[in-house]
Amino acid sequence: MINRDHLAKLMKKEEKRFLARTKKSAALFAEAKKTMPGGVPMSWMAKWPGAYPLFVKSAKGAHFKDVDGNSYIDFCLGDTGSMTGHSPAATVAAIKKQLNSGLTAMLPTEDALAVGQDLTKRFGLPLWQFTVSATDANRHSIRYCRLVTGKQKIIVIDKCYHGSVDETFATLDANGKTVKREGNIGAPVDLAETTRVVEFNNLAAMEAALAHGDVAAILMEPAMTNIGIVLPEKGYLEAVGKLAKKYGAVWIIDETHTISVGPGGMTALHKLKPDMLTIGKAIAGGLPTGTFGMTKAIADQIAAKVKREIVDTGGIGSTLAGNALSAAAMRVTLKKVLNEKNFKKMIALGTRWSDGVDASIKEFGLPWHCNRLGARGEYIFAPNAPRTGKEAADGGDFELEQYIHLRLLNDGILLTPFHNMALMSPDTTKEDVDAHTKAFRKLCAELVQR
């Protein structure tokens, strides 16, 4: 329905508007290119729409300012890393207090104990280990699964994302074979050696992949989030858990993004019983951290196979894992920020945001769809909800997405990059949501003009 010549004209208008309002960011970007490849501290930061990324001056709650003094409503929130809102007061107070009592010592603290107890109440798993990121949590979980099962293969979902874990950067080719994903940089081995890929919501494919008898673990999100929101069909998750037990594979649920549905994520919401669970990003209010939980049976098997006299941890953990600063931040963030009261507000706002998107889609007859996941909402350029990662990917439109993101950015609204997702924080307001609804409606009206 979108006239591409018309879209190109709209895009040029926004590109000029962006340059006019971000001159200090432009100057910093030019200087940054002298010392950082692409002018950014991490390569993906250069892939935002516009001639260069914004340089942030300050962030607080659900808003931030760039170096040019422009203010923005932040629906990206560090792609979940700041789901708590930027610098939540309780977390900041805990961090300040801990700064005077040591940052890291390679020894446990009372805060770590409290975090483990909190996580057990939320997710049901009794035993926890801490990492520096969700990526590490996933990587270490996979290693432990191989240890306790004696098997090598990992099953992941097509188009999944679990951080920079080598085994997970696989996809299905046109013939249904496991191959490395486009853009997978420097894969150490052929992905077919380590991984089997199956489609989301496809139980027959899951059982066929397990039936080889060589699968150590199934690693999956209970709802896909990084290719677009893909929700599980009724009974799907429970059936995957049963299949894992039938074939002797460890079932790992990654709740890093799906915690948007409530304090215990989809594991608590659907009363799931995974063998292991991983999560990171938001649980320390933005400080780098992650954690993975396990059943007592898994922990006992690990203990029986790891001898104390072997000091090397075999690729598990890092020097800064479970440090005192992150433990203090996690303890307070979980208790005072990511709690039932705040989730109730965030989920209501997520619904309000998605309702606003749906209203504009309907008003202008656009063949788009908006999916919801608690405090999250996301629209794709397809008329129906996707069932698989491929269907979600096929609902993308890079040219249109770039325009919408840049247009909203110029209007003072930031969405999550690489897809059209919004996330609510405890500090997000109805006024913030309604500002997006107004801006989104206006851009839809202009898009359908001829």
Structure, explained:
This protein has 450 residues and is of the alpha/beta class. It folds into two domains: 4-83 and 340-447, Aspartate Aminotransferase, domain 1; 89-337, Aspartate Aminotransferase, domain 2, CATH 3.40.640. Helices cover 40% and strands 15% of the residues. The chain has helices at residues 4-21, 23-32, 89-99, 110-123, 134-149, 191-194, 203-210, 236-246, 265-269, 296-305, 324-337, 340-363, 389-394, 398-410, 430-447, and strands at residues 56-60, 63-66, 71-74, 127-131, 153-157, 170-172, 178-180, 195-198, 215-220, 250-254, 276-280, 290-294, 369-373, 376-380, 413-414, 421-423. A seven-stranded mixed β-sheet has the order 4-12-11-10-9-5-8, with helices on both faces. The longest helix is centred in the last third of the chain and has 24 residues, at 340-363. The model has no long low-confidence stretch (mean pLDDT 96).
- List the uncertain runs: none
Trace the largest sheet across and list its strands: 4-12-11-10-9-5-8
Looking at the chains present, what oligomeric state does this protein adopt? Answer: single chain
What would CATH call the homologous superfamily of the largest domain? Type I PLP-dependent aspartate aminotransferase-like (Major domain)
Radius of gyration: 22 Å
Mean pLDDT: 96
- Would you give the CATH topology of the largest domain? Aspartate Aminotransferase, domain 2
Structural class: alpha/beta
- The portion of residues forming beta strands comes to 15-25%
For this structure, what is the CATH class of the largest domain? Alpha Beta
> Alpha-carbon distance between the termini?
10 Å
The main pleated sheet reads as:
7 strands, mixed
What CATH architecture of the largest domain do you see? 3-Layer(aba) Sandwich
Number of helices: 15
Tell me, what's the shape?
globular
Total domain units: 2
